[in-house]
UniProtKB/TrEMBL annotation:
InterPro entries: CiliaryAsmbly_MitoImport, TPR-like_helical_dom_sf, TPR_BSK1_C, TPR_rpt. This is Mitochondrial import receptor subunit TOM34 isoform X1. TPR repeats lie at residues 198-231, 232-265. SMART domains: TPR. Gene3D superfamilies: Tetratricopeptide repeat domain (1.25.40.10). Residues 184-271 form the Serine/threonine-protein kinase BSK1-like TPR repeats domain.
């Protein structure tokens, strides 16, 4: 009788995927362990495949509530293949479950550097921000560990699978414009020289702000954004200048752009709320005249209608501009 053929690593992985789909998370974790052991013993250098297996096993641990093991596997996965969205999100969820909010915040923010359109990461940042404010008060940002800087080469859009299909299957691809919720901002691919030029121009703008020359600062921030329109700080800094010059509608627009890039940006919320307060848009009734979102005030003149950002709590933040637990410097400092 011929000896029974041993399963390959890919076969163990596929068995793990099937078990995971049927909710058999413990069994799936065992299958992934078999695949990991086979690859480790083979001596073949395949860090990407090993990274996926560790990330998949971490998903099983997360589903079973074994958060410490989930964090370990995610960390190994990220060591093998840095800045993977799925292990970052899974580790963030495990940290959150263990109430290690600072580390969860860092992972969610790192994900948004890789792909700023992932709603799960935006929601995570918002939850962690709220939890950290309650825990550490207004100084919560000073207690954060450093957030790693994601290289430009890693800033690609990945397809985020649903909660019922968390397993990597090598189906990663770029998400084309208009594919996710019908709208994606059109970011150009930046070169390193463009990023550095944008940073230098932003710093020049900051220097003009210190000298209270807001018009020159606006020019510098505008030039910076021509090189890199993914920098939320350039928008919030320019918004500060517009506020100082009483150009409140421009300030609102810049803060809204900043929040599209970083949904938890406290400065953007505060500066936008201040601009809205000055515009009295919270109390002025609006009546939309067409399906495009163009609105007129009761006298028939044009009036600004802000786009509704998911989870932004626009009215709550504008109405609560004088939150006692946020100092004024939150919205008057440049980033």
């Amino acid at each position: 009788m011929a000896p029974k053929r041993r399963r390959s690593a890919s076969e163990w992985k596929q068995a793990g995927n099937e078990s995971f789909k049927h909710g058999q998370y413990g069994q799936a974790a065992g299958y992934y362990t078999e695949a990991i052991n086979i690859l480790a013993k083979s001596g073949l250098k395949n860090p990407e495949e090993l990274s996926i297996l560790y990330s998949n096993r971490a998903a099983c641990y997360l589903k079973n509530g074994t958060c410490t093991e989930c964090i370990k596997d995610c960390s190994v996965s990220l060591d093998l293949s840095p800045f993977g969205i799925k292990p970052l999100l899974r580790r963030a969820a495990a940290y959150e479950a263990l109430e290690r909010y600072q580390l969860a915040y860092v992972d969610y923010k790192t994900v948004l550097q890789v792909d700023c359109n992932l709603q799960a990461a935006h929601d995570g940042v918002n939850r962690m921000t709220k939890a950290l404010i309650e825990k550490d008060g207004t100084e919560w940002r000073k207690k954060l560990p450093p957030i790693p800087s994601v290289p430009l080469s890693q800033q690609t859009r990945w397809e985020l699978m649903s909660d019922n299909n968390l397993i990597d299957t090598h189906s990663k691809r770029n998400i084309s414009s208009g594919e996710q919720n019908g709208v994606l901002p059109s970011f150009k691919v930046l070169t390193e020289s463009e990023i550095q030029r944008a940073k230098a121009l932003k710093e020049e703008g900051n220097e003009w702000v210190k000298k209270k020359n807001y018009r020159k600062a606006i020019d510098k921030y505008s030039e910076s954004l021509k090189f890199n329109n993914r920098e939320s700080a350039a928008y919030t800094n320019r918004a500060l200048c517009y506020l100082s010059l009483n150009q409140h509608q421009e300030a609102v627009k810049d803060c809204t752009e900043a929040l599209k890039l970083d949904a938890g940006n406290v400065k953007a919320f505060y500066r936008r709320a201040q601009a809205l307060k000055e515009l009295k848009s919270m109390t002025k009734p609006l009546s939309c005249q067409n399906g495009k979102g163009d609105c007129l005030d009761p006298e028939g003149g044009p009036y600004l209608l802000l786009p509704q950002l998911p989870g932004s709590r626009e009215h709550e933040n504008a109405a609560n501009i004088y939150f006692p637990h946020y100092p004024k410097q939150v919205w008057v400092q440049c980033g």
